[in-house]
Amino acid sequence: MDPGSKDAIHPETKETREATVLGDNASSGSSHGDVEAGEVYVIDHKAERALCRKFDFRLLPVLAIMYLFNALDKGNLGSSLSIDLPIMLKTDGLEKDLNFRPHDYNLILSIFYVPYVLFAPPIGMLGKKFGPSRVLPIMMFCFGFLTLMGIAVKNFGGMMALRWFLGMSESAFFPLVIYYQTTFYRRGELARRLAIFYAAQSIANAFSGLLAFGVFHIDSHIPSWRFLFVIEGSCTVLFSFFAYWYLPHSAPQAWFLNEEEKKLAYHRMQVDSSSIVNEEFNLKDSLKIFRLPVAYCWLAIEICLGVPLQSVSLFLPQIVSRLKYSVVKTNLYTVAPNITGAIMLLILAFASDYTRLRFPFIAAGFAFTFIGFIIFVSTDENHTSVLLLSTYLMTWGTSAPSVLLSTWYNNNVAHEGRRVVLTSCGVPLANLMGVVSSNIFQNKDAPKYTSAVATTAAFGATGCCLAAALGLWMMLDNKRRNMKQGVNLTARDVSTAKLRDGPKSPDFRWFL
User: Fold this and answer.
1) Is residue 115 within 8 Å of residue 239, measured between CB atoms?
2) What pLDDT is recorded for position 149?
C-alpha cells in the first residue's frame, strides 16, 4: 500500500513517535502496523482531525436530512418509528375517512413489519454489493413516492397495500446508513456520529408534532392527514435526487478529498474499521457471522430493545393523553420529551466514544426506560409533573441503546460483509417488536395501560441485565486472552486488518 504523503502517514522515527504498536499498550489514537508494507506508520493527528471535520460537515448533514425525511414519512404513513401516527392520524379522522373497523388500526400498524423484516437482509446485501451511496437514495425515492401515493388511499385495503410496500422500501435504510458510516469513521469515532444522525429522528418526531399542529388548523374540505402526505412526500422525492448525485461511494473514493486525504482515509479504515477495505461481497462468507455465538446475544438484546423503543415510538401520544389534555395540546406535549431524548442520546454517545465503552451506556439507557415505565404505572393522575417526568425518562432510554447497540456489534465485526448481514438482521428485529407493542396497547386498557406498561418495563429490565452480563463476559475474555499471550492489550491496540476471522484470531480483543 502506498503510505501516502509525509503530511498524512509517515514512517515512525524517534522524533515523530506519537503512538505505539501492537504489544506496547497503545494509547487512544495510536497507530498500527501497516499490514502490507510490514512497517509501522504514524497517523498525523492534525491531518486526521481535518479529515473527520470534512466528513462531519459534508456527509453527516446529508444523511441526517435523509433520515429526518424517512422519520417524517413513516410518521405520516403509520410506520414503526414515528410517535405521531396515533395522534396525527388516528385522532384526526383517518380511521373515519378510510372506514376502519375496531381492530383495523392495529392491523395497519402490524403489517408493516412483515416486509420490513423479510426484505432488510437481502436489500442490505444489495447495498453492500452496489454501494450504500446508490441504494440509499433509491430507497429514499421509493418511500417518498409511497408517501405521495398515500393521498390517493380510499379504504383500509389501500392503506394495507401501501404499508406493505412501505415496509419493503424502508427495510434496510437504517442498517445501510450504519454500515455506510463504518466506512468513513474509526471505531472509536462512530457512536457520536451515529447519534447525530439518529437524533434527526427525534427532531423529526418533534417537528412532526409541530407540523401536525399547524396542519390541523388548515380550514379545508381536504383531510389534514392528506396535506401532510403531500408536503413531506414531495420534499423527500426531491431530496433523493440530490442525495444520489452527492453521496460518495466510500471514504477513500470521496470526491471532496484530495489524493493525500484519500490515502489517509484508506489507512484509517484498514487499521481501525475493516479487515479488507471495500471488500467484494460474498454471501457464503458473510453468513458465517451466525457461527459466532455472541451474535445471538446481540440479537437477543435487540429484541429487548425493540419493545420499549416501539412502545414509545408508537404510543407516546396515548401515554400523554392520560393527562386528559386536548388532541392538539397532547400533540405538543410529545415535542419536549423527544427533544430531550435526542440530547440524552448525544450525551451518552459522546461519553461512550470518549471512554471507548459501549455496554455500560447501553445498560444505562435500558435502566432509564425501565424506571420511566415503572413511575408511569405507579403514579396516579393527580401528580402531573411526575407523569411528565416519566415520559422524559422513556424517551431518554430508547434512542441511546438503539445507536450504541448497533455501534457495539459493528465495532466488533471487522469483516464488512458479515457486518452488513448482522446489522440488517438486528435493526429490523428490534423493529419487529412493534408487532408486540401495537398489540399490547389496547384501547380497553386506556388511559393507564397497566399490562402494556408492565410488559414494556420487563423487556427493558431484561435488556439491561443482558447488556451488562455480555459486557462483563467480554472483559473477562479479554483478560484471559492477555494472560495467555503475556501482554496487556485492548481493542484499540490491534489493527482490524488482522481480525478478519474475528474471535478466532489470537490477537482479537473485544471492543467493550
Assistant:
1) no
2) 86
